[in-house]
Design a protein that fits this description.
single chain; Urease, subunit C, domain 1; TIM Barrel; 4-stranded parallel beta sheet
Length: about 450
């Protein structure tokens, strides 16, 4: 076999139609971990993956040795705010509501600035090995969506809408405009426009219902803080002060609430497409029983809701709160709910050079002593693809077209564990190829635990 070297950019060069055999320290995706590993590739498709003994010698292939790297599929970031990339880390010492206020005051406010910030976020995502993003297109969301649509990576731009109290009609108008924009933008492979009612404390039930009935992909922040439940259940708490500050309710005015937990409030809205919900840090309140949690998780599974969990952002913003349990991602997976990894926005991150769910995997592995490599990589690939309605096989090492292939530093007696203990970014061997992700569809697949 003819030996091969990667180009100056670290990527696989063209091999004039010949197959390529990668011999790496290891390989890992959502289904398998192998060390050492051999991967046979032809025309951006995996033909075989396994131990060197099982794949054997391929006489007509060119050979690339990666003795100090582990090969993985390209990654999917299920929840990000790319328009906040330029803000950098922003401490949250004064509380979540005050932090949100500073985000609102400093985020880009001109279409050109929003597009530039999203473009910077896309570059940071590519440096992080990410091929698709569930991006929350916030202020001037159409500029965000157009930028992602024309980029090298895919995903969904969820155009964010707000509308509650005196501004409830603005939420409904935002849904209508998002639907018109989605119809007007040309179809691109691996990309779609969706709608994001921002959160239960900023959008009325009617706004949620309109978004859910639109037929577009839908996302929302949900059960991110305990204060959210105080508002939806009792019409109290610091979010009432925030709504007065932004003019959604007048001083001394109350607000009509559902009286339900934020999750129950969402589940009561019949969706045309399954929800992708971000965070879910607090699925129950202290006065609710274990049976309430079990029933709630079963309903989320029945509705094929995907949960985008952002471990670093949760820790940065002080979750879990004192006296409250940690994030229930293991319980969600056990209940048959897809749990995908997200990053949230750059203000929550400590990696200013990249935006990557690989760093979320590493954080979880260190913070919880969780070294379930296949489960963690599944959350960073297949689960995110399913949540975004993309082709999940494109982010595996299985047969078929690849959306991308990465090499990550990792070596020693257990190179896959070494990957999780290190901090270097991945490099692209192949891709990103958003066309392999298909067109986001309503068929989200059946969640598997």
């Amino acid at each position: 076999m003819k030996p091969l070297e990667t180009g100056p950019d670290g990527r696989l060069p063209t091999t004039d139609g010949r197959r390529t055999l990668l011999r790496a320290a290891g390989a890992v995706d959502g289904d398998r971990k192998i060390a050492p590993a051999s991967i046979l590739i032809d025309d951006h498709q995996v033909l075989a993956v396994g131990s060197p003994e099982s794949v054997g010698v391929v006489e007509d292939a060119v050979l690339l040795d990666l003795p100090h790297e582990v090969v993985t599929p390209a990654l999917v970031n299920a929840h990000a705010h790319l328009d906040l990339t330029g803000l950098g880390p922003m401490p949250c010492h004064e509380g979540f509501e005050q932090w949100l206020g500073r985000i609102r005051a400093t985020r880009p406010s001109e279409a050109s600035d929003v597009a530039a910030a999203v473009a910077t976020g896309i570059d940071a995502s590519i440096r992080g090995g990410v091929v698709a993003v569930g991006d929350i297109a916030g202020a001037l969301g159409f500029a965000s969506a157009s930028t992602l649509a024309d980029s090298p990576i895919g995903g969904i731009s969820f155009v964010e809408v707000f509308g509650i109290g005196r501004r409830a009609k603005k939420g409904l108008e935002g849904v209508r405009k998002a639907m018109e924009f989605a119809k007007a933008i040309p179809e691109r492979p691996g990309f779609a426009v969706g709608i994001q009612p921002h959160a239960p404390y900023s959008c009325s039930v009617e706004t949620y219902a309109a978004a859910a009935a639109s037929g577009l992909p839908v996302s929302t922040h949900l059960a991110e803080t305990p204060e959210e439940a105080a508002l939806t259940r009792h019409g109290t708490g610091p979010f009432m002060d925030l709504l007065r500050t932004v003019g959604s309710i007048a001083s001394g005015e109350t607000i009509r609430t559902s009286g339900a937990h934020p999750i129950d409030q969402l589940l009561a809205v019949e969706p045309a497409r399954a929800w992708l919900v971000a965070h879910l840090n607090y699925p129950t309140e202290p006065d609710e029983s274990d049976q309430v949690l079990a029933d709630r998780l079963q309903k989320l599974a029945d509705q094929k809701v995907t949960v985008a969990y952002c471990p670093r952002a949760s820790a940065f913003l002080g979750h879990p709160r004192k006296g409250r349990p940690g994030h229930p991602w293991r319980d969600l997976v056990a209940a048959g709910i897809e749990v995908a990894l997200g990053t949230d926005g750059m203000p929550c991150l400590e990696t200013p050079d990249r935006i990557s769910v690989l760093d979320e995997i590493r954080f979880l592995s260190r913070a919880e002593g969780a070294w379930e490599a296949c489960q963690l990589f599944r959350m960073a690939t297949v689960a995110g693809a399913r949540g975004l309605g993309l082709v999940p096989e494109a982010v595996t090492l299985g047969p078929g077209p690849l959306a991308g292939l990465l090499a990550v530093p990792g070596s020693g007696t257990d190179p896959i564990r070494d990957v999780l203990a290190r901090s270097e970014p991945p490099r692209w061997l192949l891709g990103p190829d958003r066309a392999a992700l298909g067109v986001p569809s309503e068929d989200r697949g059946v969640p598997s635990g």
